[in-house]
Amino acid sequence: MKQTINKSKRSSRRRLPPIRSGEMIDYKNINLLRRFISEQGKILSRRMNRLTSKQQRLMTIAIKRARVLALLPFLNNEN
């Protein structure tokens, strides 16, 4: 009985989507891109980001473009 209550409570909990409906995934939107990069400068995995596969592909392309244009660092070595 106790397990069924916990399962239903877990599934009814809704998480906010990481990208709002008005936000565009673009290499110029640095504030958005920084949310999906680790402290070391690595691109976070899709499971950690809670993105769809299409959003993750677009995010990866945007982060790589921003790195090439020097808007984002390739590595974060600020120790």
TrEMBL record:
This is Small ribosomal subunit protein bS18c. GO terms for molecular function: small ribosomal subunit rRNA binding; structural constituent of ribosome. It comes from Ceratodon purpureus (Fire moss). Belongs to the bacterial ribosomal protein bS18 family. Keywords: Ribonucleoprotein, Ribosomal protein, RNA-binding, rRNA-binding. One of its GO terms (cellular component) is mitochondrial small ribosomal subunit. One of its GO terms (biological process) is translation.
